Amino acid sequence: MPSSSLTPAGMTAAGFLYPAAMCAFLTKHGLSKGSLAPSGAVAATAVGMGTFTNTPYVFSTVLMTFYLSSSRLTKYKSDIKKRLEEDHKEGGGRTAIQVFSNGAMGTLIAIAFQYVYWTTESRPATLFMSDWRASTLLFAYIGHYACCNGDTWSSELGILNSGWPTLITTFKKVPPGTNGGVSALGLGASIGGGLLIGIMAAFSVLVQQAVETTFVWTKGKGLVGIDTFLAAVDPKFLLSLILAGAGAGFFGSLLDSVLGATVQKSNYSTKNKVITYKPAEKDDDVKAISGWDILDNHQVNFVSSLIIAVATGYLSLKALW
């Protein structure tokens, strides 16, 4: 249980310089590239401080992988997306609501890790392989961001599919940008987005294990410490992280599509030839494509990532422990 200390065990005031520097980079990069709106920059700072203060490398690595890769894909072929999406913004320009809908759950998991290990001064990478609590929280964290990254990749690349997507509930062809529309390109992208999160998570754990191993060069034996490092590496655990990322990306995108097709309204403007969320203009015929007006896109993203995070954490607990 946490002590009364205001900072985690082993962290000094100077230890906040790294999280602060990472947050400064995140917000400066986002504002300069147009990936973040001013309110989004404030929200990103909150997400960053809740994440970067964790000493295991994997939390920061996964967050930065999601942010940088999703921001890059949002800009990819932006001119085409503008013609297909009424609300498309070049660069993304994510607001606070958008940042929190994709980052709130991940931040809460990172903070939960801090809470559980508040008095634990040493948090080596092997903690994830020796303590079911650390392992479950890590898989839930990966599940969350793999879901978000997979859905972002699916949306940003799927809309560029050569043909119209298929509505996941009726299997009918619908206009590009329709909530719940899926395509082979989009589904493949969702696996790729989640897979990247899983690979970077596994790589980060592996790097931390190497850093925490004492390597010594001796004249007679050469580099001593390799055997210790290799003995600590758990290939099954690392492979599980990668597969969890790919699975969360794929199933998260499917879940997002099902929710989008049912509890999110999609209307089509025959005048402007785009999916619209605005009232009909003069001489425009707006047709209902699918869904009920219950949740908006941000709420669907939050619900999807929450469900996938819980499911990934639970499945890892049953499979590994």
Q: Name the helicity range.
A: 55-70%
Tally of DSSP β-strands: 7
Task: Walk across the major sheet and give the strand order.
Answer: 6-5-7
The helix-strand sequence is HHHHHHHEEHEEHHEEEH
Structural class: mainly alpha
**Ends apart, CA distance between termini:** 22 Å
Count of discrete alpha- or pi-helical segments spanning 4 or more residues: 11
Overall pLDDT score: 88
Low-confidence stretches: none
Detailed description of the structure:
The protein has 321 residues and is mainly alpha-helical. Helix content is 62%, strand content 7%. The chain contains 11 helices and 7 strands. The strands form 3 sheets. A 3-stranded antiparallel sheet has the order 6-5-7. The chain has a two-stranded antiparallel sheet with strand order 1-2. A hairpin with a 3-residue loop joins strand 3 (216-218) and strand 4 (222-224). Helix 3 (57-75) runs antiparallel to helix 8 and helix 7 (132-158) packs antiparallel against helix 8. It is elongated. The protein starts with 16 loop residues before the first helix and ends with a helix. The model has no long low-confidence stretch (mean pLDDT 88).
Kindly summarize this structure in a few lines:
Helix content is 62%, strand content 7%. By secondary structure, the chain is mostly helical.
Q: Main traits of this protein?
A:
321 residues, mainly alpha, three-stranded antiparallel sheet, two-stranded antiparallel sheet, 11 helices, elongated
